[in-house]
Design a protein that fits this description.
This protein is of the alpha+beta class. The chain is built from 3 helices and 7 strands. The strands form 2 sheets. Strands 4-5-1-6-7 form a 5-stranded antiparallel β-sheet, with helices on one face. The chain has a two-stranded antiparallel sheet with strand order 2-3. The longest helix has about 35 residues. The chain starts with a helix and ends with a strand.
Length: about 160
Amino acid sequence: MKKKMWLAALSVVFALALFVVPMQQSYSSAEGSSSANGIAGSALDGQFQLGHVVKIYVPSTVNGDIPITEEAHEKFVDEALTQFSGWFGGATAVEGTGAWVDDNKKLIKEKVTIVYAFAEKLDKAAINQVVDYAKKMKEKLGQSSISLEVNGKMHFIE
């Protein structure tokens, strides 16, 4: 009789474990993905999203601090927009001002345009393609480096 009771109790525990553990895991993973963005229960739940962002900072100078024409700068921006749109399905350009201090402690400022794209997935091949493009831009503009931002981390492509 004792053996039957143990077997019955063990069966109940096993059945509960099969039901409760997967339920808890699915609830936790769904909650984790939404609450990580602070949007659990919002109208964005279940909507398509692009979780990666790639940005290239297009300088408006050559050889460090020699300004190029507005037309020449626009040509580089349009080229970057075309490349990023082809690779990621679309891109946006935002103007800004970049600055650094040179070896003589002089502030160097220049107009920059940040071209960025969001991506659903970002693999090694896509990153390598963007880095190769940044290297070509660096050479064309005679820069010591080109700034490339991936998922919030800045990289200086030399």
